[in-house]
Each structure stands twice: as C-alpha cells, then as structure tokens.
Amino acid sequence: MKQERSRDSLITILLPISLIFGLVLLLSLNTGESSIPEESSPLESGLKVIVDYLAVGAEIAAALVIGSAVVRAIATYLRQLFSRSRQHQDATESIRLKLGRLLTLGLEFTVASDILRTAVAPTRQDILNLGAIVLLRTLLNYFLEQEIRQGEESHPSEQERN
C-alpha cells in the first residue's frame, strides 16, 4: 500500500514535468522549412477540403459540448443557490465534477480536430505543432482527470446516486 502511494506520487510529479519539458522542447525546435507551398494533386486537394470540413465539425462539437456544459453548470448552480437545501457544498462539488467530465470530452474533440488538420500531407513543422498542442491538451486533461478522481473519492455517495 505504501509502495503504491509512493509510485502514484512519483507519477503525479514526473508526468506533468515531462509533458511540460516535451512541450518546451517541441516549441523550441525550428525546422527551417520554407513557407513556399508545394504543388499537390487534385485528389490531395479534394481530400484536404473534406478533412478541413471534418476538423471544423469536430471543433463545432467541442464548442457545443463545452458551451452546453458551462450553461448547464451555471443553471444547476443558480438553482442550488436559491433552493433551501443545506447541502450547498456537496452540490457545488458535484457541479465541478460534471463540468470537469464534459470539459475533458470537449478537449478530446479539439485534439481530434488538430489531428485531422495534420492528417493530409503534413510538413515537419505541422507535426511538431501538433505534438505541442497534443502535449498541452494532454496536460490539461491529466489535471482535470486528477481533480475528477479526487472529487469522486472524497464524495463516493454522489457516484452511487447516478
């Protein structure tokens, strides 16, 4: 048990540090590629258009998920604030957990959008930019998951009700 805790605390410290280090490293790399666009075939151009539409769809999905989550969280909070219930602290924590889960889903959609945009004929700089973006969003996602897990462990009765 004690060995598991020390391993978990080591992972909790090393993972974010390594992700931040990787992000800084990726952002500091400069490939020196020219910005002159290469000629592409009509098939590749058509594929880029389709993938761009799919990427925009993923971005719209992310915006809808995150926007609806924020509106829902605010409405739930206001309803709880003006109710006569004494469980305000537990309700606030529940709202945070639900919002965190939906923010995580929204982040996954944005990562999918970035991957789609880089899928067709990427340059080395596109791949480095994608790596930096994915690392940053993975770091955000990691901390959100930690918050959700800690909140669920401290309030197991909320999970049983859902």
Explained architecture:
- By secondary structure, the chain is an all-alpha fold.
- It has a domain at 44-155.
- The chain has five helices and no strands.
- It has helices at 2-28, 42-81, 88-119, 124-154, 156-161.
- The protein is flat, with a radius of gyration of 21 Å.
Features of this protein?
mainly alpha
Query: How would you characterize the largest beta sheet?
Result: none
Instruction: Work out the helix count.
Output: 5
Radius of gyration: 21 Å
Question: What's the overall average pLDDT, rounded?
Answer: 78
Proportion in β-strands:
under 5%
- Helix vs. strand class: mainly alpha
| Run of helices and strands | HHHHH
Number of strands: 0
Distance between the termini: 29 Å
Low-confidence parts, pLDDT < 50 over ≥5 residues? 158-162
Task: Give the helices and strands, then pairings.
Layout: H1 2-28, H2 42-81, H3 88-119, H4 124-154, H5 156-161
